[in-house]
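sry for the spam today, last one i promise. struct tokens for design, 182 residues
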């Protein structure tokens, strides 16, 4: 793996992004978004994941995080492993999922092409961590994260996207509690 995609400073504040295999729009139903939100909340409450900013899109996620136990790659790995299993099970069990067979086939196809995956694969492997080293860079990444649904044409205002901390940054309360820099 390239050094470019590693957490070099385990205590650092990081901007990370990761996507579904083939950039498939999987988070298109409330139950799928709920799996992600509930899992992030669990990691925040039980695994020491500090979440300062987030946006969950249909095919990818952006986060600004820090790991209290200086283990961001472990926490994110467990998060991705758990949500992959939960999302796939939810897709299989969802009688209203019109794309069920195609989705499961694509996830199996992705897993078969990866040497270190047994079975299906939902998430791409890398997290593309970028350490945030100044207030200017932090502000730039927060803006990028929150503007993602606007740029994608889903909403006109960032705080209208339900699955984003833009709501919190606008004075409201989002679907996921966030941490604030002291």
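last one done:
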């Amino acid at each position: 793996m390239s050094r470019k995609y590693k957490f070099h400073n385990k205590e650092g504040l990081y901007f990370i992004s990761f996507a579904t295999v083939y950039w498939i729009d999987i988070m298109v139903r409330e139950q799928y978004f709920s799996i992600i939100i509930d899992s992030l909340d669990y990691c925040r409450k039980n695994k020491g994941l500090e979440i300062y900013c987030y946006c969950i899109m249909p095919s990818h996620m952006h986060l600004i995080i820090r790991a209290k136990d200086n283990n961001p790659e472990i926490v994110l790995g467990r998060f991705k492993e758990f949500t992959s299993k939960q999302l796939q099970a939810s897709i299989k069990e969802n009688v209203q999922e019109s794309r069920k067979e195609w989705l499961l086939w694509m996830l199996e196809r992705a897993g078969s092409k990866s040497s270190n995956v047994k079975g299906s694969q939902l998430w791409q492997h890398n997290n593309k961590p970028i350490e945030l080293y100044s207030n200017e860079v932090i502000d730039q990444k927060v803006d990028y994260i929150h503007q993602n649904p606007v740029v994608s044409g889903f909403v006109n205002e960032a705080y209208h996207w339900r699955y984003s901390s833009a709501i919190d940054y606008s004075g409201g309360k989002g679907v996921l509690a966030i941490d604030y820099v002291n």
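The first helix runs from residue 30 to 46. ok im logging off now
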